[in-house]
Structures are given as C-alpha cells and as structure tokens.
Amino acid sequence: MKLPVIAAAFAAALITTSAQAQDVAAGERSWNKCRACHQLGEGAKNLVGPQLNGLFGRHTGAVEGYSYSTANKGANITWDEAVFAEYIKDPRAKIPGTKMVFAGIKNEKEIADLTAFLKQFDKDGKKM
C-alpha cells in the first residue's frame, strides 16, 4: 500500500470517529442520567449539583451560589474535554472527596456524545 492511500484511509477513519463523537441527540439522552442533580439551559439553577452551563473552560468550584466540597474547590481544574472524560468515568477517583455521588459513565462513545451535548450551552444557558 502506498503512503497516500494509507494517509487517506487514516484521514477517513478520523473523520468517521469524529462524526460518531458528535452525536448530540445521543448526548441529550445520556444527559438524563445527570438531570436529577444538575440543570442546563436558560434559567438553570443549582440543585444537588451545580448548573452546568458553560462547563468547558470553567474552573472547578466556580459556579456562584453553589456550596462545593473543599476537595472540589481545591482541585484547581479547568474543565476541558479530556478532564471531563476522565472525571465522568469515576468522579471520586478524579477528585477524591467530591460530594458527587455517581457511578460514572464508562463508555467512551457515550462520554463523547454527552460532551457534545453539554458544549452547546454557553455560560448563560443559550445554545450556541
């Protein structure tokens, strides 16, 4: 196999993986696991957990009016896709002492879909 053919096959695989990772509708279904404790969208409020508008790029412990654990406030993490993926698999392993009681989402595709869904909402809860 020649190099251009290999490169084209690799690029096609990346495009296919990226398209699969962007399934917002599947992410919205996964969001149902989060809704009992978190809100999202315009008018979202803190519940058992903080509202999640504008999550990516935000620092841990930064939502106004939410009573975070000492562990979460001191974690010094800025949420991005990689950090969120690691956290949502096992929140207590990523931030020992967090108040978040959640078994986690282990499936990489589901995490990517949930991430795509969450990323739609800016800090004010408006869909971007």
How would you describe what is shown here?
By secondary structure, the protein is an all-alpha fold. Helices cover 43% and strands 0% of the residues. The chain has six helices and no strands. It has helices at 3-21, 24-31, 70-73, 81-89, 91-94, 108-118. The longest helix is centred in the first third of the chain and has 19 residues, at 3-21. The model is unreliable at 5-19 (pLDDT under 50).
What low-confidence regions span 5 or more consecutive residues with pLDDT below 50? 5-19
Please indicate the percent range of residues in DSSP E strands (runs of 2 or more).
under 5%
Distance between the termini: 43 Å
> Element order, helices and strands?
HHHHHH
Which structural class do the helices and strands define? Answer: mainly alpha
Number of helices: 6
Percent range of helical residues: 40-55%
Give the mean pLDDT. 88
Count of individual beta strands: 0
* Largest sheet entry: none
Shape descriptor: globular
Give me the Rg, rounded. Answer: 17 Å
Properties at a glance:
mainly alpha; single chain; 6 helices; 128 residues
Summarize the structure.
This protein has 128 residues and is mainly α. The protein contains six helices and no strands.
